[in-house]
Design a protein that fits this description.
Length: 343
């Protein structure tokens, strides 16, 4: 099996269908706060740089960044995630609303803080330190049931379901079981609206994984480990295309999923699917920051599948999208226009 070519006209047609596609994102939402300053000396108190404050800005991270990417590409995302009852949660909601993300699926948990990463960086985008506010225990009891209820409520209208797992407590086995149940029962709106062939009785479920939850992802349509995660899950080395092929096939077997897309940084990607398999070369022109590139990959995959793309076509579009965002600083997004221009 080899990967088919994706010509420019087909790619542009698919991207043109991104607008209005509904995607349910379930996962760990975060707030990324950047404190920017200038370093001119070392502290006399300790061998650390002294950063003179210049500015501060906030970006959406984790599952919230996935949803932001979907919205920036023209989709209509709904986000189900846990937040604390704190100022960071209010700021997160404001950012989501400004980005065009439906945040009514957020669940308040007063027992934990909103996950927030505070990075101190220099004016040249060099990171000096990071402070994390988080409590990563699994959701349970009423909080977990509230997540399940929201999955059932928002999932029925979605063309694609997407899990963004950062091991911060939102993604539990009951939540994943609820997603799989929705995938099996909900109609495939994308196939009908786009005129593409029917994919069967399930809507796609994409998972950006964490390996401790691997067994719970069984039944997913597509899982997107990076090459480190693929090595841990399969106990196989991933350096060459041949090794990537072997690891992807083994990952599919262990995860019991339909397809696997291993992201390999500057080596591109490796796709293993029932009807196609092969390497997808990287297309990055200049790498500034790889933070959040995986979020862009799964966001693009979801919209492409909703638009009627095959898994191979969706992976190629996602590869081009990642090539754009790694040229930007921090958790970044891109527009459908940027993606079309590159294509």
């Amino acid at each position: 099996m080899t990967l088919p070519r994706l010509d420019a006209s087909r790619a542009r047609d698919l991207v043109g269908r991104f607008a209005g596609q509904r995607v349910l994102v379930v996962g760990d939402a975060m707030l990324d706060r950047f404190i920017v300053g200038r370093v001119t000396r070392i502290s006399p108190e300790a061998p650390v740089p002294v950063v003179r404050f210049q500015s501060e800005h906030v970006r959406l991270g984790g599952a919230a960044n996935v949803a932001h990417n979907i919205a920036a590409l023209g989709g209509k995302p709904s986000l189900v995630a846990i937040v604390g009852a704190d100022a960071a949660a209010a700021r997160l909601r404001e950012q989501l609303e400004a980005a065009g993300v439906n945040a009514s699926g957020l669940v308040d948990d007063r027992s934990r803080p909103t996950t927030e990463k505070v990075r101190i960086v220099t004016e040249r985008n060099q990171q000096v330190a990071r402070l994390d506010y988080e409590q990563d225990g699994d959701a349970a009891g009423e909080i977990q049931q509230a997540l399940v209820d929201r999955v059932e409520r928002f999932g029925s209208d979605a063309s694609v379901l997407l899990v963004s797992d950062y091991l911060k407590g939102t993604v539990t086995r009951p939540v994943l079981e609820a997603l799989l149940a929705v995938a099996a029962s909900a109609p495939i709106a994308a196939a009908r609206s786009s005129g593409e062939r029917d994919r069967g009785s399930r809507i796609p479920l994409i998972v950006d994984p964490k390996i401790p939850h691997l067994a719970a992802y069984a039944g997913a349509t597509l899982i997107t480990p990076n090459h480190h995660e693929a090595e841990v899950a399969t106990h196989l080395r991933v350096r060459t295309d041949g090794e990537a092929q072997q690891a992807a096939r083994e990952f599919r077997r262990r995860a019991n999923c339909d397809a696997v897309l291993i992201t390999r940084g500057d080596q591109g990607m490796w796709l293993s699917a029932p009807d196609s398999e092969g390497a997808i070369p990287a297309v990055a022109r200049e790498v500034s920051d790889v933070t959040g590139a995986g979020d862009t990959v799964v966001a693009t995959l979801s919209l492409a599948l909703a638009a009627g793309a095959t898994i191979a076509e969706a992976a190629m579009l996602a590869n081009h999208a990642a090539g754009i965002v790694v040229g930007k600083f921090g958790p970044a997004t891109l527009t459908a226009g940027e993606l079309t221009e590159l294509l």
